[in-house]
Every structure is written in C-alpha cells, then in structure tokens.
Specification:
Largest sheet: none
Order of helices and strands: HHHHHHHHHH
Shape: elongated
Length: 200
C-alpha cells in the first residue's frame, strides 16, 4: 500500500476511534493510549498525526460538524423529511450525534456553533413551510434542543421505552417517535385559537 494512503487510513481510524471514545467517555475520560488501542495504532502515531489530545479533539469537532451538515443536506432535499429512515441513518449518524452532544456538554465552541446552525436551519425551514410560531427563533431553538435532549438523556429514555436507543432497534424506534412529536399537533385549531385569545 502507498505510504500516503496508509497514513490517511491510519489518521481516519484514529479520528473515528476518538469520536467513539470521546462520545462515550467525554474528552477527559479517553486518553491518547485508549484511542491508539481502539484504532490499532501506537500512541506515537496518534501524536504524529494530531500532536496533542486537544488538537485531535478539534479535528474530531470539525469532521463531525462537516459530516453532520452533509448528512443534513442529503436528508433535506426539497425540504421533505417524510421519507426519513432512522435505521438507515443509524450507523453513520449515531456516533457523530453522541460525540457532538458530549462535545457540547464539555464546552466545545465548534459543537455549539453546529447547534446554532441547526437552530438557523429549523428557523428557515419553518418559514419556508408557512409555519407561524409567535417566536420563530424560540421555536427553532426548542425543536433543536428537543432532538438533542433524547441523546443527552439516553439512559433515561432507554429505560422509559424498555429498549437501548443506541442499538439499531432502539434508535429506529425513538427516531420514528421524534418524527411523530414534530408532526402530530398537540392542540386542535380551536384550542390554539383559544390560547391566542387568552394571551392577548
């Protein structure tokens, strides 16, 4: 194998191993040695490619952000999410989602920026579909946070439904449930009108 290709493959393996371990344990909970072992390389090779753990984290942040934006663009063709299949998303999206959620909790500016882009996207989507919330920005922020909160509370959500949502079956089930949360109205038009009158 060409050395450059071999190095690229090793770099990708290291990055993917770091995303999985950082996502599961947090940044502080995964050492360079742990990441090297998971990637099947030496600690020296990790340092050769990334220098420090903080630099590796930054590379993971950037990759996860770019990949999730790419996935989002692929899914939102013409703004139609009705054919979304959580099971097809599972192997690609879940490790990145777990990583980004943990990264946000650990204070990553890149992950926080991705959250803000998600809010922007929901805000734009709702306007394009003629959805008229009283506070569009608040509405977009709430929807984006709801999607993430399922993963933040994954142990509790898994216990509630009796199925681990990090397995394909559980991920598929909670993904479909989220789609229903976003598509089934909680209030009738009459109840909405009554609520609006009360607030005036």
């Amino acid at each position: 194998m060409d050395r450059a290709v071999e190095d690229l493959t090793a770099r990708a393996r290291i990055r993917d191993a770091a995303i999985e371990l950082f996502g599961g344990r947090g940044i502080e909970g995964a050492s360079i040695r742990d990441i090297a072992a998971a990637a099947g390389v030496s600690s020296g090779l990790v340092r050769h490619h990334f220098g420090s753990k903080e630099s590796l984290r930054e590379a993971c942040d950037q990759y996860a952000k770019e990949r999730m934006l790419q996935i989002g663009a692929e899914l939102s063709t013409d703004g139609d999410l009705s054919g979304l299949d959580p099971l097809a998303l599972y192997p690609v999206a879940l490790p990145l989602q777990l990583y980004l959620v943990r990264s946000m909790m650990d204070g990553s500016e890149t992950a926080t920026a991705l959250f803000m882009q998600g809010v922007d996207a929901v805000e734009e989507w709702s306007a394009g579909y003629g959805i008229q919330p009283r506070d569009r920005r608040g509405y977009a922020a709430a929807l984006t946070a709801i999607k993430l909160s399922v993963l933040i509370l994954r142990d509790q959500v898994s216990k509630a439904i009796g199925e681990d949502i990090t397995t394909p079956e559980g991920y598929n089930r909670i993904g479909k449930a989220l789609m229903e949360v976003f598509t089934i109205p909680l209030l009738s038009p009459e109840q909405v009108e009554k609520l609006n009158k009360q607030e005036k």
